[in-house]
Amino acid sequence: MSGAELCHRHTVDGLFRAHYRWLCAFLRGHVHDRASSEDIAAETFAQLLQAPALTAIREPRALLTTIARRLLYQRWRRADLERRHRQSIDVDYAASPEDLVTLSQTLHRLDHSLQRLPGKVRTTFLLARIDGLTYPQIAAELGISQRSVSVYMTRSQALCDRHSANQFLQDKRSA
Fold first, then answer.
1. In this predicted model, what pLDDT tens digit does every residue of 67-121 receive, in sequence order?
2. Phi/psi at 125 (nearest 5 deg)?
3. Lower Cβ count inside 10 Å, N or C end of the chain?
């Protein structure tokens, strides 16, 4: 581990010690659940730890709030997607509890796969698929080129295709 990485870890550790409880309290006002607020706060610091080495942070709470809000929005988008998907299933047919469990597990596996994508790739995918934004709108939102949006969507679609293929194989094995 280089000196810069060690310094970065030390900086994040100091931020964690100084602001973790405050961040949990802040998040509790948005999620009304202590465990969820602690999960989001922990993920906030995990993302901060994975970020490139930080320069001096003048407003640490502003930085932490920004990261935590992004995570909160992602959580809300996921819940909204899951709710809409369940509603579409309820309209299509009366799903058995087993079908709902299978669907929920599939969505969680897909979500886990999406979490492995780099931030901008994942955000591009969510903006397109969940929010229904066009490539030009996504490019403007993220401050990237439309070509980058296209590349990111191709990359995330490949992940979805792999996920579908893996799901198909699992279904074949269990049948």
1. 999 999 888 888 888 887 777 665 555 567 787 788 778 778 777 777 778 888 8
2. -60, -45
3. C
